[in-house]
Amino acid sequence: SVCCILSFVLVSKPALAAEWAIKLYPTPSQRSFPSAISVDAKRRVWFSELNSNKIAMFEPSTSVFFEYDVPTAKSDITDITADANGIIWFTEQNANQIGRFDPRTKTFKEYEIPTPNSQPIKLAVDSSGNIWFTEFAANKIGMLDAKKGDIKEYAIPTQLSQPMGIAVYEKGYIWFIEAQANKLAVFYPAT
To answer: What is the spatial distance between Cα 31 and Cα 3, in angstroms, rounded to a whole number?
Structure first.
């Protein structure tokens, strides 16, 4: 399920207060349905806007938002992350693609997933810069080689597992959730 966030929240603890303070930042596009969120190495906050088909960046030091239209219409961006080089990666569930945005050049590149209608949901970056993602409707996990642009897919043995969340362990293990199968799984790509 997708959680609705009406405005962005930064939480900070005042130096002399015992209570936490919450500061709200309304997003620039009304009814944009912000959902996935990530923070890059420069402390900029990146998030997806499902209804407006944009990715957005919030600069906390200036309280300024920047929005970028994703090239493919109605792509349904379900997750977003920043890699070690500052490149922004995101899943395009309805477009069946993994998206890449370079904040320096303000350019997009989209990678088509080989299995049609796979519904990529979540993604994670490994130590080599590869992008791992779940394919909810295809019962697979995938890996995008960020240097070559090639995608490899790996079938999950559990039928109708509906993989959702994914995380990469520094030793190269790929952990993921089989939501429908009610299982936690690990994949060892080196074997």
So the answer is: 14
Please give the structure tokens belonging to residue 45.
């906050």
What 3-state class would DSSP assign to 2?
A: coil
> Can you name the residues that pair with 110 across neighbouring β-strands?
99
Average pLDDT of the segment spanning 75-81: 96
Question: Model pTM?
Answer: 0.87
**Is residue 11 over pLDDT 70?**
no
Cα(132)–Cα(149) distance, integer angstroms: 13
Residues with Cβ < 8 Å from 82, sequence gap 6 or more? 38, 39, 40, 41, 46, 88, 89
Three-class DSSP category at 158: coil
CB 147: neighbour CB atoms within 10 A?
Answer: 9
| Mean pLDDT across 6-17 | 49
Q: What are phi and psi of 36, to 5 degrees?
A: -75, 150
Q: How confident is the model at residue 43 (pLDDT cuts 50, 70, 90)?
A: very high
Give the per-residue pLDDT at 134.
98
Q: Provide the residue type at 21 as one letter.
A: A
Q: Chain centroid to CA 116: how far?
A: 20
